Amino acid sequence: MKIVAICGAGVGTSAILKLNAERALERLDIEADVAASDVASLAQSAADAQVILTSPELVKAIGTTNADVVVIDNYFDLDEIAAKLEVAVG
To answer: Which end of the chain is more exposed for a tag (fewer CB within 10 A), N or C?
Structure first.
């Protein structure tokens, strides 16, 4: 399974979300490849992704995709991330 965490620039916020998604997946005992990306590179970086993690502000920028788009409100809340990932990949 491939998961892509995105933010505007693909550096800070997506890296935090990527790290916390990996921690949440570990809690759930789910194996996945998690990558960080910026919105501009999303078409290429998420072409084969099953899940895209993002903030509410960037949902419209994602466009058409076959991946499940999961909106994370608090990038530091492992419980929120784990619960939403469990629904998306479960």
So the answer is: C
CATH superfamily of 2-89: Response regulator (3.40.50.2300)
Q: Where are the domains of the chain?
A: 2-89
Per-residue pLDDT of the chain (90 residues; tens, 9 = 90+): 999 999 876 567 889 999 999 999 999 999 999 999 988 887 788 789 999 999 999 888 888 888 999 999 999 999 999 999 999 987
